Amino acid sequence: MTATALDGLPPSSPVARVGGSGRLCYFVRMTSEATADSAARLERDALGELAIPAGAWWGIHTQRAIANFPVSGRRVHPRLIRALALVKKACALTNAELGFLAHPLAEAIAAACDEIAVGRRADAFPVDALQGGAGTSTNMNMNEALANLALERLGHARGAYDVIHPIEHVNLHQSTNDTFPTAVRIAAIEAVRALSEDFASLQGAFQDRERAFAGVIAMGRTEWQDAVPVALGAEFGAFGEAFARDRWRTFKCEERLRVINLGGTAVGTGLAAPRRYIFRVQEQLRVLTGMGLTRAENGLDATSNADALVETAGVLGAAAANLSKAARDLRIRHYLGEIRLPARQTGSSIMPSKVNPVIPEAVIGAALRASALGALVGVYAGQGTERINEFMPALADALLEMTDLLGAAARILTGHVREIEADAGVCRRRVCDSPALIAAFVPTLGYRRAEELALAFRASGERDFRAFLIRALGETAVEEALSPNRLMALGSRS
Fold first, then answer.
1. What are phi and psi of 325, to 5 degrees?
2. How far apart (Å, rounded) are the C-alpha atoms in residues 436 and 429?
3. Residue 34: pLDDT above 80?
4. Where do the H-state alpha helices sit in 350-441?
5. Residue 229: band (very low, low, confident or very high) from pLDDT cuts 50, 70, 90
């Protein structure tokens, strides 16, 4: 490892600056011999010297972040790490193509990016998801990890930043404020694509039950009261329609998320980045991701405002509401005995054989948490100041956790719904016993006559309202009025 003098110290001093540029803020020495096998290596930045575990892929900026942010106990979301690796690869390849970075260095950095982009080296990213600094800690963690991974590929010890430097080489022509928000959008696109497919499967599960239960008449309820009879299958079909909208809305989120500010550097103006790099790097990233990414027309806007992410969270909030509503209604029908949910586990340590509707309950819990996270996305977006959003890491964490929760909830509910059975006998009995059944006869009898029959039934003390109506109106009239096709026809016969 070569070194230059530091504050009058000779190059042989145990504290020496790596690299020859006065702008470098890294200083490295090994605690015994200058090898990666040492117990630790020492790196130095503008704040001083710090020991780095010898086996760590990261460097001093990451080490400080580990100490500074013991907040949530959660690491940065893997989707975001993978997306940021793709951003860095695009930058390295572009810099090499334009002659700003030596090809051997760019190739080593790009290969390191590939490792991370496919989900390897998760141990290289220890920083907490909730961090200050607009994402600088994650950006520097990536820069340091890529530098050290690339160094090892080239046969150098970790920390040999005179060969490949985290800032001078890996972060060349970049800022946290353009790389990190770009990575957030790529991660979000990947997440909403997967979520759209999850909703498509859930839609299919409800539509399958719609067909299976098409001939089952059940009592439709409003405000916890019997209202009018409906086909049970139609109720499942209604949820299928809701999740079809969620599928489409989620898919359409990508249109807003495609607009990126990569190349804008610190505030969106592209300061310190060559013009030809700015245009080329976005083309390179589009190829690497396979996504229809587009350069923001107004770089300052794209760097400082996160409303596209808030809009996405709003769409996901609608899906959370639909999941919660569907799961809640399934629990009610199950409690009334009209449908049978699949038994998943025994539900009590004191009541033998008790089985609870745990899957709908888990879905409701996940949906409520997702709704709360969606609200947080809006709050974080509004807390940005001037030309950046300092809370982008927290915003990204909330949005990506939201997609995780909704996807998991949709998947477990999909399998559950496909196994639901209807108890046609219970459904029919509840319809027949309910005075609300009279609503089906209003078109033929008129409101006043129908009301008289309902009141007469209540006064009679009988339980079977259908039998009562057959005696009053005749079996043919009753069966015709209560046929599934008649009940679900649009409007009444004229």
1. -65, -45
2. 13
3. no
4. 358-382, 392-418, 424-433
5. confident
Supply the pTM of this predicted model. 0.87
Q: List all residues 6 or more positions away from 468 whose beta carbon is below 8 Å from its beta carbon.
A: 453, 456, 457, 460, 462
Q: Tell which CATH architecture fits domain 27-172.
A: Orthogonal Bundle (1.10)
| Same CATH fold assignment for domains 27-172 and 178-252+312-424 | no
Write the pLDDT tens digit of every residue in 442-457.
888 899 998 998 899 8
Q: Which residues contact 17 (CB under 8 A, 6 or more apart)?
A: 3, 4, 5, 6, 24, 26, 27, 44
Are the C-beta atoms of 303 and 177 separated by less than 8 Å? Answer: yes
Task: Using the Cα atoms of residue 102, residue 106, residue 109 and residue 111 in order, give the sign of their dihedral.
Answer: negative
Tokens 């990536």, residue? 142
Residue the block writes with tokens 């586990």? 345
How many CB atoms neighbour CB 290 within 10 A? 7
Catalytic residues, by residue number, are 348
What φ, ψ does residue 301 adopt, rounded to 5°?
Answer: -60, -50
Structural class in CATH, domain 178-252+312-424: mainly alpha
- Structural domain spans, the chain: 27-172, 178-252+312-424, 434-488
- Picking from 247, 266, 202, the residue whose alpha carbon sits closest to that of residue 420 is 202
Mean pLDDT of the chain: 90
Cα 28 → chain centroid: 39
Indicate the residue type of 83: A
**Structure-block tokens of residue 266:** 């610190």
